[in-house]
Amino acid sequence: MKKWRQQIGDPMVADSILDRLVHQAYHFELSGESLRKAKGGRP
Description:
By secondary structure, the protein is mostly helical. The chain has one domain. The protein has helices spanning 2-8, 11-23, 35-38. α1 (2-8) packs across α2 (11-23). The longest helix is centred in the middle third of the chain and has 13 residues, at 11-23.
């Protein structure tokens, strides 16, 4: 969060933006092997 505040310049505005982003977010915890790994690398 410190980087957000530095990048935005105003700590109150940065906290408000982050609060709105996180408030509507969903948190997914995935388990198992990555499908990208299982299906192969780059062509």
